Each structure stands twice: as C-alpha cells, then as structure tokens.
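Design job #97: recover the sequence.
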C-alpha cells in the first residue's frame, strides 16, 4: 500500500505539467499529506516542490488557501514549514511576483492578535 501511494505521488508532477487545471486540486491534496509522519513526509514535499517549479504562483496560492481554510494547527504548521523550507529557499524561483504573493498571502494568515 505504501509503495502504491509513493508511486502515485511521483506521477502527479507530470500530470500537472501536461494539464495545469489539475494544479490546485493536486496541490491541495499534497498539502494535506504533508502532515504524514516523517518517513512518509518526504514524498509529498518533493512532489509539491516539483509542481511548484512548473507553476509557482498556482502552487503557492493553493498552499496558502489550504493554510487559511484548515482548522488543524498541525496541518497549517506543516504547510508553512514547506513554504519556508522549500519555497523561500528556492531563490532562483523567488521572482518579484512570488515575493509579492508571499507578502500578500502571509499578511492574510497572520491573526490580528499577533499584530497587537
């Protein structure tokens, strides 16, 4: 069962590359899978990174949308860790458009109580 899940995740970037309309749904599913335990965590992380390289704006918007729509603190934390560790560290893909998107979406998820 574990190998089937890994194999399925590894095919997703090719599907998204050929059909961009699947990027939001696939990204949302992978964002949910980021909360898997550490041994299973690498595959969705790497798959999301590959999809990000093909469609940075769509991937990032979907991950931020997932962060703002879930009530699970662990899920939010894992998604934000992915953004920080994988996206922000990919300096070659951090264009001004992505930088602006990070700022805009980041401001939306910061609770007002943190600003006080």
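Job complete. Output follows.
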């Amino acid at each position: 069962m574990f190998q089937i899940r890994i194999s399925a995740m590894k095919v997703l970037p090719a599907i998204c590359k050929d059909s961009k309309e699947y990027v939001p749904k696939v990204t949302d599913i992978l964002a949910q899978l980021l909360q898997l335990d550490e041994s299973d965590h690498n595959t969705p992380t790497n798959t999301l990174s590959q999809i990000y390289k093909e469609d940075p704006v769509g991937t990032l918007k979907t991950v931020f949308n997932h962060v703002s729509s879930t009530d699970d603190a662990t899920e939010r934390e894992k998604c934000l860790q992915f953004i920080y560790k994988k996206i922000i560290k990919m300096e070659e893909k951090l264009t001004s458009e992505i930088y602006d998107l990070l700022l805009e979406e980041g401001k939306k998820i910061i609770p007002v109580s943190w600003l006080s």
